[in-house]
Amino acid sequence: MMRWVTLFVSLLLTGVKVGDKAPTFSLKNIDGKLVSLSDYAKEKGVIVIFTCNHCPYAKLYEDRIIALHKEFASKGFPVVAINPNAPEIVPEDSYENMQKRAKEKGYPFPYLFDETQEVAKAYGATKTPHVFLLKKEGDDFRVAYIGAIDDSPNDAKKVQKRYLAEAIQALLDGKAVPIPETKAIGCSVKYRK
After folding, report:
1. 28 and 99 in contact (C-beta within 8 Å)?
2. Up-side HSE of residue 191: CA atoms within 13 Å toward CB?
3. Are the beta carbons of 30 and 99 closer than 8 angstroms?
């Protein structure tokens, strides 16, 4: 238990906060090509979501993540999904299984493998799913929102607050994000010790 607490605290200390410059990344997509944050330089922002194959919460959110991409990619906020889990801890989250899952679900966005877990640590991802909404400011991306997609992880029909969608809409309207941080609900990221 103490090791867990120490790990969690160290992640909080190294992760980003709202307003911080977003850590850059270049990770392997399910098609074998590298995808970098810099590839999105012409976008208004990026919806970075740390997620995976095995977590029941991640599975419950798959269709909602696809819908978010379809709703906001054309408005300048595409989704980039990143799997931070160590496959030796959870074999279901292997690169090969990522390829299968993305094909089964028809992901319209990149699904990247954070093999070294350095990107997840840089952001401070602790759950799957865990959202980091980035907005373009000059040549940089800044963190505008961190947390949950909405307020109903177990049932999409019972959503009352679409935290992420509301944050994106505020940015599109040139307003401040109304709720810049919420608690991410999901499975713990499976970090190597």
Report:
1. no
2. 19
3. yes
Q: Is 118 helix (H, G, I), strand (E, B) or coil?
A: helix
Q: What domains sit in the chain, N to C, each tagged with a CATH number?
A: 2-188 (3.40.30.10)
Q: What is the pLDDT along the chain (193 residues), one digit of tens a residue?
A: 444 443 444 444 479 999 999 999 999 999 999 999 999 999 999 999 999 999 999 999 999 999 999 999 999 999 999 999 999 999 999 999 999 999 999 999 999 999 999 999 999 999 999 999 999 999 999 999 999 999 999 999 999 999 999 999 999 999 999 999 999 999 999 999 8
Q: Are 66 and 78 in contact (CB under 8 A)?
A: no
Strand partners, 137: 140
Q: What is the DSSP letter of 144?
A: E
Give the tokens for residue 132: 């980091």
Q: Look up residue 12 and give its two tokens.
A: 């909080």
Q: Is the pTM of this model over 0.70?
A: yes
CA gyration radius, the chain: 15
Q: What's the CA gap between 52 and 23, in Å, rounded?
A: 20
